[in-house]
Amino acid sequence: MGFLENFEKGLERFVTGAFTKTFKSELQPVEIAGAIRSTMDANAAILSRERILAPNSYAVRLSSPDFKRMRQLGDELITELTNLAAKHASKQGFQFGATLQIKLVEDGSLAIGEVQVTSSSEKLAIEWTPALDIAGKRYLLTKPRTSVGRDPSADIQIDDPGLSRKHFEIVWDGAKAGVRDLGSTNGTKVAGRAITETSIVADTAITAGRTEFIFRVVARNAPNYSTKAETP
Asked: Suppose 184 and one of 60, 143, 167, 216 were both cysteines; which one would form an S-S bond, judging by CB atoms 3.0 to 4.6 Å apart?
């Protein structure tokens, strides 16, 4: 299901069946979502093969009548636009250097039905941080060497009987990464191939025991993060 179709489905949670009749041929929220998506695509910057940075702040300029109608939908509209813009960014492989923000702006110079979206990025120091995505959780890797295994002595402990106490480690020098098997019983695979040690890039799949680990490199704008799990 596409970006706009997802948006229309999401709107059903708080807009009644009279939505289409109410707005008739005037500007609809689904058009705003499309305009944000297009602006994001047009202004994303390729920093490297694995890193594409998109603007994090979007101002949606609307005519006075459209602005008043959209404002009646309340915070739910902004929530939907923000969530779906984030999903689009994830699908495209975009990352943000700061929190994604969308705001509606009234512009009396625009005609009914017109929408203009401008984007910008906060001028923050962006730190590229390695991470492992494991079963829907993200573990940020804050050390040059991060061990993974089933034992509490591992930096990241995973409840998997197929893992050794310390199974493998991720090595990060601030720009490049590698994975090294730590003499595990069942071995470590990268992209389906057994390894002793090898370099890895963003989105590399690592398999150990019964668990798949996806190596990521994410943009952060604050220097201190731990290896506790968070939602990716």
From this structure: 167
Residues 6+ apart with CB under 8 A from 197: 178, 179, 180, 181
Quote the CA–CA distance of 79 and 19 in Å, as a whole number: 18
Which long-range CB contacts under 8 A does 147-155 form with residues at least 24 apart?
Answer: 147/182, 148/208, 148/213, 149/182, 150/209, 155/227
Per-residue pLDDT of 111-166, as tens digits, reads: 888 899 999 887 655 677 899 999 989 999 989 999 999 999 999 999 999 999 99
For 152-190, the pLDDT digits (tens) are 999 999 999 999 999 999 999 888 899 999 999 999 999
Cα–Cα distance, 69 to 47 (Å, whole number) = 39
Query: Residue type at 2?
Result: G
Q: What is the number of residues in the chain?
A: 232
What is the C-alpha to C-alpha distance for residues 71 and 214, in angstroms, rounded to an integer? Answer: 40
Structure-token match 């050794």, residue found:
164
Instruction: Give the pLDDT score at 225.
Output: 31
Task: Give the containing element (helix H, strand E) for 20.
Answer: helix 19-23
DSSP state of 76: H
Q: Are 26 and 113 in contact (CB under 8 A)?
A: yes
- Contact call for residues 214 and 204 (beta carbons, < 8 A): yes
